[in-house]
Amino acid sequence: MSQKLISFDVWGTLLKPNPDFRIEINKLICSFFEQDINSKFISKVNDTVKFKLNQAVNLFGIQPNVESIFALMLADVYNTGQLEYNRGKFIKFIDDYQKTALKIKPLYYSENTKEEVLRIYETCKKQNYKMVISSNTMFLKGVTMANIVNTLFFDEKEGCPIFDDKNFSADLGVSKPDSEM
Q: Under 8 Å CB-to-CB from 98, ≥6 apart: which residues?
């Protein structure tokens, strides 16, 4: 018997970035390099790297892991001079980025997004549908995204997350529309 399900994307459908998050990430990057770096420059590099990666993901259907994505972004920020290799500092940066995402969560896409999703959830439960998230992720690990989604989309009445399953490209190594997603 086949399972009935409804699948949601995250970014631009359910959630949108929190502007305060980018401010904190810019501070985190400056701390990583132990110097002040123009925040507009950091934002431009971040957007450029994300654009290039999205192109590659869409063309070839493969998803780089989070560490590779951060290595590309940080290398582009620090495109002059010598950066001393320090894997421990790099891993700490990635961990701090994830912690910042959990502290400064994304915003609902619209003011009634959560209520609309809860309404769909109630209908799906009655008709035995599963609700799934499938999202191409770049800088956030799947565990971080799952935590965010579980926190923002929680059924208070039932005391459980709304979504039955969550698929994030950063964990799977492939991107939508690959069948593994």
A: 140, 141, 143, 144
